[in-house]
Design a protein that fits this description.
It is built from 2 helices and 6 strands, in the order ββαβαβββ. It is mostly beta strands. The protein has a single domain, classed as Signal recognition particle alu RNA binding heterodimer, srp9/1. The strands form 2 sheets. Strands 3-6-5-4 form a 4-stranded mixed sheet. Strands 1-2 form a two-stranded antiparallel ribbon. Strand 5 and strand 6 form a beta hairpin. The chain is globular.
């Protein structure tokens, strides 16, 4: 899998490309998806058709993919950063 664009996109768009033998589900490799930040990943997955289980693609990030109305949707949660205590 190759990822590019996020750091340079004014819209936060990230492009993904996959090797032909990538083990990801075909719908993830061939249908563009949108991602939504959620506060509670496990809660957001309840009752949904999960096509890629929860995992951590990078430090402080957890995500999973579901099917919604025939399209893949990524649900993402970010570890909350603690705010420094100011005296």
């Amino acid at each position: 899998m190759y990822i590019s664009g996020f750091d340079t996109s004014p819209f936060g768009i990230e492009w993904m490309r996959f090797e032909p033998d990538s083990p990801l589900p075909e719908i993830i490799k061939t249908v563009p998806h949108i991602a939504f930040e959620v506060d509670d990943l496990e809660g957001a997955l309840e009752g949904e058709e999960i096509i890629y289980p929860p995992g951590s693609p990078s430090d402080g990030v957890r995500s999973a993919m579901i099917i919604h109305n025939g399209a893949p949707v990524e649900l993402i949660t970010f570890r909350k950063r603690s705010t420094p205590h100011v005296a």
